[in-house]
Each structure stands twice: as structure tokens, then as C-alpha cells.
Write a structure and sequence with these properties.
With 288 residues, the chain is of the alpha/beta class. It has seven helices and 14 strands. Helices cover 26% and strands 30% of the residues. Strands 1, 2, 3, 4, 7, 8, 9, 10, 11, 12, 13 and 14 form a twelve-stranded mixed β-sheet that branches. The protein has a two-stranded antiparallel sheet with strand order 5-6. It is globular.
Length: 288
């Protein structure tokens, strides 16, 4: 039995942070970071049967072309993903009344839709990136036992090529769900390594008034390559999603519309168009 202090429920029986009960979510879930982007997706639903919000976690469940789906905002960062993934798993794989894990476990399909800037000149604005691998630069996932799911050869290559300072913690590499990759795949997607940072400024190489530990880290990451695969983009959630997804038995995939290209300094003339196209494509594939 899982203690009340470990799995916290609200007075109405919903999980603490997400404010959800098991019947409120579908098996196919789309993550967005910004709560205002939830309705940018659910506006295409024929019907919305449930909607709630607590803090930055906004959830809507409804139907697209007859397929039941949930859209949820996670907020920013690996710490938020730790909350979202664990509480979603509890909704489907723990009996909230007996507080015991279920014998028959459910595997959710989780796709993150985001926007990002590309790190490579050959990944132009208005294109799509599919994160084949995620490189976790944060330490959150190291709180769990990840040796069986991490790509150790890729981790070692990244550490060596970037001369990573292990005082910041050891980076980890997790692959995407092959099942979802095959379902979503399109020639329009560029594949590679997505870096997941634990912050927006220093952890991503931005300098305002504070010096950072490695001023050359971004250029080192841009140059990182393993068997022809390179870094595509940098954000703050994907590695945590992939890692917890694999540990808990869920299928996870991260997709990004590229609205800027850091390598050549370009920005999309119409960033909303690329995002809308990625949303429409993903909804269609999930409904099939």
C-alpha cells in the first residue's frame, strides 16, 4: 500500500497537482508547455467532454475524428515533467482507493508538441524536428534507476566530445518510442539529438550579467556527432519525458516546429503557420 504522504490525493479523490481522476484522461495524450496552447489544439476537436486547470497544469479531454484524446499543459522544465508523468501513471496504473499498483498495467501514448530553434544550418525554419534521442543535461532523472534504459555509449561520446564537467552531474541519453516514431514518421521530420536543459539562461548558454561555467558549451553541443547523428535543438522537457516514460512503460515522442535557426540567424516569417501544421499533422496521425 502506497502511503498518503507519497501519493497525495485531493479531498475529491483527484491526484494532487493535476487535479484529475482516472476517467478524466484518454490513453492518447498530447503535451504542450504553455497552458494557452491547449485550446490551440482542442479547437479542432468535435467535442470537449472535460476541462480543468490547477496551477500551470491545464487539461482538456475530447474527441478528434471520433478518437478520444487528452491535451495537457506541463509548464516548463524537468521538475514539472516529474510531477506530470508520475501523476498520469498513477491515474492509470495505481488503484487510488486501495493505493496499490494494478496487476494489469496500461501504457499511455504521449506526444509532446513544442516550438524550438534548430542548432544546425541544414534544419531550416518552418521544418519539423523529431527527437530520436534526448540528452538530459539536468539531474532530475538521476534520482531514479536509469541504467537499463539509458544509452551509455552515447552518453560517453557526449561527455568526451563536449569535455563535460561532471561536477554539474552526468548527462543521460534516452531514445524515443519506436512505436510512436513509426506512427508519426514523415519525410518532413529531421531527426537527431534534442538537448534538455534544466534552465533557460545559464544552462542553455545564455549570458546576461552572470558568467557561465563553460562559455563554449553551445558550440561544442552544435558540433557533437555520433554515427552521423547530430544535435538538432535545445529545450527543457524531452529527456525527462522519455526517461520517465520508459521507466513507467509508456510510449513517448517529442516533436518541435522549428521557428528559428541559430546557426544562420534566421527566424520564421510566420511561426504560427508551422505550429498549426504540426498540430494538424499530429492529430491526424493519432486519429488513424
Amino acid at each position: 500500500m502506497i502511503a498518503s504522504s507519497e501519493l497525495i490525493l485531493n479531498p475529491d479523490g483527484s491526484v494532487y497537482h493535476l487535479n484529475l481522476k482516472p476517467e478524466h484522461i484518454a490513453n492518447d495524450i498530447i503535451f504542450v508547455g504553455d497552458q494557452n496552447r491547449v485550446e490551440k489544439i482542442t479547437q479542432f476537436f468535435e467535442k470537449i467532454e472535460f476541462s480543468t486547470q490547477k496551477r500551470e497544469f491545464k487539461t482538456q479531454t475530447g474527441f478528434f475524428k471520433g478518437k478520444r484524446m487528452t491535451v495537457m499543459s506541463t509548464g516548463i522544465g524537468p521538475d514539472n515533467i516529474d510531477i506530470v508523468m508520475n501523476e498520469l501513471d498513477a491515474l492509470v496504473n495505481i488503484d487510488l482507493e486501495t493505493r496499490k499498483p494494478k496487476e494489469n498495467l496500461t501504457s499511455l501514448n504521449i506526444i509532446r508538441i513544442g516550438t524550438s530553434g534548430s542548432l544546425q544550418a541544414n534544419i531550416p525554419v518552418d521544418s519539423f524536428v523529431l527527437s530520436k534521442y534526448a540528452v538530459g543535461l539536468d539531474n532530475m532523472l538521476r534520482s531514479y534507476l536509469i541504467d537499463e534504459i539509458s544509452e551509455k555509449n552515447l552518453e560517453e561520446a557526449f561527455i568526451a566530445q563536449t569535455n563535460w564537467d561532471l561536477r554539474k552531474g552526468q548527462p543521460y541519453v534516452i531514445s524515443c518510442s519506436e512505436t510512436l516514431e513509426q506512427k508519426i514518421e514523415s519525410p518532413r521530420f529531421h531527426k537527431g539529438f534534442t538537448g534538455t536543459a534544466g534552465g533557460f539562461y545559464g544552462p542553455q548558454g545564455r549570458v546576461l550579467r552572470l558568467e557561465i561555467q563553460d562559455s563554449e558549451l553551445n558550440s561544442k553541443m552544435d558540433a557533437f556527432e555520433f554515427e552521423g547523428t547530430k544535435m538538432t535543438n535545445l529545450e527543457m522537457e524531452t529527456a525527462a519525458i522519455y526517461g520517465l516514460g520508459k521507466l513507467l512503460g509508456h510510449n513517448c515522442l517529442s516533436l518541435n516546429a522549428i521557428i528559428a535557426n541559430r546557426a544562420n540567424g534566421t527566424f520564421s516569417a510566420d511561426p504560427y503557420k508551422a505550429v498549426d501544421e504540426l498540430i494538424a499533422y499530429t492529430l491526424q496521425k493519432l486519429s488513424e
